[in-house]
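Input structure tokens:
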């Protein structure tokens, strides 16, 4: 569970949907996460139906939503797509749906939607051609990562790491899943390099480091964002590196 002050950064698990403004630098973090999800993503029956279908068919999304619910102390009713506190039940005309703590490990914090299996894992990222060649290139670069993840970024990193691990567990033979997991720290936890004298001040340096990590974590789950992160590692013209990612060279 989150700290008592509720501080920190947590990208919205639905940031790929409905032109979501959350999950980027400047987001309010998980203190207002559920309010954002309820108002922006679950504000209409049409959006609820689309998200129910997406959650049921995308293991990464299912995991991300479960983690966001856990952090916020809520569970989601898959029938009406309404979040509730753990102690609250969801009442329907013909039945009452409750969150059972003993079922957390099996279903997570989503009740009424079956956890997607291996056959439903989103493999759209395969088009990037992520393979061992890319892994060799990334690990050959002299990239420094932070020794300790800033406190305000730990929840968000846990969300992204959990999704990456779940994909490896679901698809242990997928080279793409393993490569993404192994390059995750280098892409998201790079040491912030201050530009000017003001950025080099201790307080500003810490703020810049947190914002840098938050920006990277928000980009990680998006195909274009992932490509941007890899491009930044090589610091080459966008077109050339993008071609390299697609070709795995």
């Amino acid at each position: 569970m989150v700290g008592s002050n509720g501080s920190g950064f947590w990208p919205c698990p639905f940031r790929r949907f409905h032109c979501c403004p959350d999950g980027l630098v400047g987001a309010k973090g998980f203190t207002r996460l559920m309010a954002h999800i309820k108002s922006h993503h679950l504000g209409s029956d049409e959006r609820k139906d689309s998200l129910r279908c997406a959650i049921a068919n995308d293991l990464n999304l299912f995991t991300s939503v479960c983690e966001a619910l856990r952090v916020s102390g809520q569970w989601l009713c898959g029938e009406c797509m309404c979040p509730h506190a753990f102690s609250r039940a969801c009442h329907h005309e013909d039945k009452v749906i409750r969150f059972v703590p003993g079922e957390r490990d099996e279903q997570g914090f989503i009740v009424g939607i079956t956890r997607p299996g291996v056959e439903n894992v989103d493999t759209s990222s395969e088009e990037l051609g992520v393979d061992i060649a890319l892994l060799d290139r990334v690990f050959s670069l002299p990239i420094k990562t932070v020794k300790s993840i800033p406190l305000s970024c730990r929840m968000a990193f846990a969300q992204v790491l959990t999704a990456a691990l779940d994909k490896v567990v679901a698809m242990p033979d997928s080279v793409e899943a393993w490569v993404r997991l192994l390059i995750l720290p280098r892409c998201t936890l790079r040491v912030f390099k201050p530009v000017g004298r003001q950025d080099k001040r201790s307080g500003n340096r810490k703020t810049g480091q947190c914002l840098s990590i938050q920006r990277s974590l928000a980009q990680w789950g998006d195909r274009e964002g992932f490509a941007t992160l890899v491009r930044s590692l090589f610091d080459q013209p966008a077109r050339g590196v993008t071609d390299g990612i697609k070709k795995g060279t």
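DSSP finds ten helices and five strands in the chain. The two ends are 42 Å apart (CA to CA).
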